[in-house]
# Entry
Amino acid sequence: MATSNQGGKPLILLTNDDGIAAPGLKALVEVARNYGEVLVVAPDSPQSGQGHAITITQPLRLHKVDMFGGIEAYECSGTPADCVKLAKHVLLKDKKADLCLSGINHGSNASINIIYSGTMSAAMEASLEGVNSIGFSLLDYSWDADFEPCKPFIAKIVSETLANGLPGCRLLNVNFPNKPEGGIKGIKVCRQADARWIEEFAEATDPRGEKYYWLTGKFINDDPREDTDVNALSNGYVSVVPSGHDLTIEKSLQPLAQRLES
Amino acid sequence: MATSNQGGKPLILLTNDDGIAAPGLKALVEVARNYGEVLVVAPDSPQSGQGHAITITQPLRLHKVDMFGGIEAYECSGTPADCVKLAKHVLLKDKKADLCLSGINHGSNASINIIYSGTMSAAMEASLEGVNSIGFSLLDYSWDADFEPCKPFIAKIVSETLANGLPGCRLLNVNFPNKPEGGIKGIKVCRQADARWIEEFAEATDPRGEKYYWLTGKFINDDPREDTDVNALSNGYVSVVPSGHDLTIEKSLQPLAQRLES
# Structure
């Protein structure tokens, strides 16, 4: 196993976007502590839907907390991506994490949700810093979601990644179907589905008589390909999408150059 | 030209992340109004670094403003992505914008900045809704930046896109070098550079005696490829990167399946 740590054990950075008190983070700590020395740096409040937001116009705070049975842990006043940056630059300094785990998110980050997700952005932030990173999400938005069925699959993915690295990428987007123990069929490595949200805004009037809007929506998958994350999940598999950060559309380069460079 | 609008003129949605009062947005309105009917929906305060954040735990507000010489305009209490969602669902309803323009951002969104950028996330949000979208950014962070040299290039890219659509993509990331009028050499269509931020946190103590951290950083391009946006910009060209939202790393699918699916 790769080790950056003087004790010889892998150093594993944990974060999330549901906040330091989220049960999903606790579940992830419970698995990760079997594989190395764990450092938790998580937002001090829920940060769902924060995407890859970073805090540049305000100061950030870090407070040490004791809530994971002896594991070193901090709550941070910023976004998930801020947590990863602060962990690297303020807490770890010249040590480098061997692995970053983010989650377990309460709710899906499959398909286009990767773009809106604080959980996945934290993992991506670590991957940009050269650290292999994995975001985990369960397709159950409730605070009381049952994370137990996820644990053997997290253990497998974490131990495999610590032993052999990631092939050709530095980031995995892992989602779990909402199934009871024994109900998950296995792991499928797949591509990001081209699914989308059909949104609406609930419109209402506040006690001061001012109109407001509240986002609501429905997730629609009209991607017909079989090898997508959304399809794997609806068939009862854990989806694993190797992910990056290069958004270039290769096939558009040449036709666009013909039109615009003249 | 494509038209969704009863008047027969293209309907162009404008937004940004520097806020409704930013000079860069005013400059973009000045160009866009020559090409169609313009609707402005922009954040009521600066939202730099907001990434693809969306507001799901709070209500959103929209207020009509009159600050662009007769152009219909609204300030919104949410993020740049929220602005685009509200424009579609609350203001446009069954009309569909023909084009979304975001910016002109005060500062670079080349390379990995696309991930952190509210400007680009607003444009991406519109592209996810099926609207051709272009984010514009000038490599000058100052409020008093001179946007005049950008205007002929914006005019060219907007008129070309309205006339012929975008080939194989729905989103362009356009950045302008910081050059005086006549100093820009032309347009280069290019790929997203694999550049990154080397960050630090300034550490200080507030008047209450509590420690805080403030993000600071330096942008480093160690991507040796010649056809990147960062390279085009440093050679004095406007960079245009056709961009998408599929983060899947194709080459990792098969080796990862071998390891994890067994």
The two ends of chain B are 53 Å apart (CA to CA). The mean pLDDT of chain B is 93. Chain B touches chain A through 81 residues (CB under 8 Å).
